[in-house]
Amino acid sequence: MQEERLVKIKELIDRQCLMDDIFFSCLMDENIALAEIILQIILDKPDLKVERVATQRTESDLVYRGVRFDVFAVDSKGQQYNIEVQKDSGGFPETRMALNASILYQTTFAKGNKDFNIKQNYVIIIFESDYFQRGLPIYPINRVIKFGNDNWEYLKDNQQILVVNGANQDPATKLGQLMHDFSCADPKQMKLKQVGLIVSDYKKGGSIMYQKTIHHYDAYFYDLISEAESRGEARDEARGEARGEAMVITQFLNQGKLTVEDIAEATGKTPEEILAIKNQT
């Protein structure tokens, strides 16, 4: 890895928090301890035990018809979880929530299961802002059976979507403390000691986990750059490199995973140049 690129990646990692899904995906990769903390607090189940965690970079089965799960987890009871982080509310509409739930439902249903005995499964989307703007810490979404205007029951389909309000950072609650830590880039400033220790290990120079974080980011950028540059070269060899660079930046912008400043840092351009490319698309 080039020294200049390494420096930029390290500076970027310093600014990242759990709400940045590249960083979140890196930390959650086979990280049972962190997955347990998150699920125990959000679901208010302190005894919940996670047996398996996979991320979008380590589990090819998590990509289904263009939908990619950030994190997939299974607990000791066989219940399945899809955990997503989202900075941009517009990037995860309610139809996307339903689609993720549908795909997770299909993975839950074992082949040959003629009794329709399906374990409970959850799609959990942690938004940086209050998605529904009602001031609640969590918004549960369930299917219901209506028997009239005021008469209804929950459909017993063992499926639930939970939309978590990342703007709720009430220090008096564990969930509020967790949401604070999700938006905090400095492990020393985190409210939950266990979360701070885990994040610190992935940001601390010299640790094995820190090297893993660097390689994770380098691989992410390399994949996007290689794909975009090859597309640009295929279209016009003489101008392929310039087109490929613009396509990389456009992909970064469309994914909403990095700020304009972060993209400038990673590509060696100024924020003004990034904004100019954004305005051309």
Structural write-up:
This protein is of the alpha+beta class and 281 residues long. Helices cover 46% and strands 17% of the residues. The protein is built from ten helices and ten strands. The chain has helices at 3-15, 21-28, 32-42, 94-108, 174-182, 193-203, 208-235, 240-255, 260-267, 271-280; strands at 50-55, 63-64, 67-68, 71-75, 80-86, 121-127, 138-141, 144-148, 151-154, 159-165. The strands form three sheets. A six-stranded mixed beta sheet has the order 1-4-5-6-10-7, with helices on both faces. Strands 2-3 form a two-stranded antiparallel ribbon. Helix 4 links the parallel strand 5 and strand 6. Helix 7 (208-235) crosses helix 8 (240-255) and helix 9 (260-267) packs across helix 10 (271-280).
Largest sheet: 6 strands, mixed
Strands side by side in the biggest sheet: 1-4-5-6-10-7
Unreliable stretches, pLDDT < 50, 5 or more residues?
233-238
Shape: globular
The number of strands is: 10
